[in-house]
Amino acid sequence: MQKSKKRYIWYGLAGIIILAIAYWGFNFLKGTPLFKKTNSYYVFYDKIEGLNNSCPVTVNGYKIGQVMDIKFLPNNDNKLLITLEITNEFLLPDETIARIYSMDLMGSKGVELIFGQSKKFHQPNDTLIGEVEQSLKDQVSVQMLPIKNQAEELMKEIEKAIAIISYIFNEETRDNLEKSFASIKTTMAYIEHSAFSLDTLLVKESGKISRILSNVESITLNLRNNHEQISNILNNLSTFSDTLVALNISQTIIQANKALTDFNTIIEKVNNGEGTFGQLLKDDKLAKQLENAAENLDKLLKDLRLNPKKYVNFSLMNIGRTVNVSDESELNRRDRKVIEKQKRKDEKNRDKNLEKEQDKSEEDKLKSEEKSDMSNADIQFMIQIRAASSKIENDSEELQGFNDVVELKIGNRYKYYIYPHNESSQTSYYLEMARQDFPDAFPVAFAEKKPIAYSYGLGLLAEKGK
Q1: Residues 381 and 442 in one domain
Q2: Which of 172-203 are b and which e, b meaning 16 or more Cβ less than 10 Å from the residue's Cβ?
Q3: Domain that holds residue 17
Q4: Rg of the Cα atoms in the chain
Q5: Beta pairing, strands 97-102 & 127-132
Q6: Which has more confidence, 250 or 122?
Q7: Which of 97, 109, 247, 381 has CB 3.0 to 4.6 Å from 51, enough for a Cys bridge?
Q8: How far apart are CA 324 and CA 332, in angstroms?
Q9: pLDDT digits (tens, 9 = 90+) for 105-158
């Protein structure tokens, strides 16, 4: 009897274990966690697009719960109430959206939670905002609808264009087009012949054209270099023309005629030997006397400049009174020593003046020799692109990336040059290239590594060529 009781007890325990395993397995298959606490949340949908019980609830692809129940509410506008079971490890912020979406291409559905940005959280059994993802068909329809409308409008435009083309290109129009093409062909033949003739002319006269362009360039360069002088000349002409307008021309002409008549009368008297000027012209004696007087006056002035004390009375201070002396023999020994000392001082000053005059003449001679040396110096040309009071670094944006820039400090300013060359015919080409980056660039000549005006350099180069 004891054995049979034990056996039934074992059977009961085995049955309980089997039921527990079956319950666990059933919930496991459903995805319900047995040992985790969950919170329930509710969502209303108009349609659920094939969502079923046990469908997963995910956040960023990670499963945090499942769909526990789906109820149809005929009394609430036929809406569907979905119950979501979510582990209590996750708190849902306010404004969290529960969106039904397709998990794969086979159409498996799930619920994706899109958290809101609020710092407040939903309580269990709260209602979430429901949203349904568009199906692939709906997405394709939405994207294809504008293309469909555009295609229909395009077909209408093509029909109109075909109708217009059919109306234009009738038999008469085709004949006119054939005639037009024939005229165009003839015109092209004439143009080709003219181009050939023009090319031949350019080849023959290329030398003349080059010289003409060079002359035009030289003229424009001179005009630019002498812009201020030309402006002054025009201003003077304008002032002169205004003055002429303001003058009484007729009265001026009458007075000029009268002055010419008087002048002619004077000339006749001079020719007849009348008056002082007439006698001067007729009598050589007076002219010789004037010439001798001029020579004597010149000698007197030179001697006066070199020996000024010789022609000036000496005034000496003698205990508060002034003594004027015209004869040195009247002076005492002390005054004579003073006068002799003054004479020696005057002689020294005269010698210094003579040395200064000699130094000045030698300096003028050196300047003339330097000018003649510059005429024999090698002439080089460059394009000046910048001038600044402070130094510009080589990697500065002001130099536009040029690495071979020549820098010269002239006075208190720094000047920068590019494109050194020896032929003046190359200057226009380099100037055009430089002005692409530096619109204010202009050419400069160099003699003995010293900058000079471009026109002056051209003049020196022309003199060397002679």
Answers
A1: yes
A2: eeeeeeeeeeeeeeeeeeeeeeeeeeeeeeee
A3: 1-30
A4: 59
A5: parallel
A6: 122
A7: 109
A8: 13
A9: 777 888 898 888 888 888 888 888 888 877 655 656 666 778 878 888 888 888
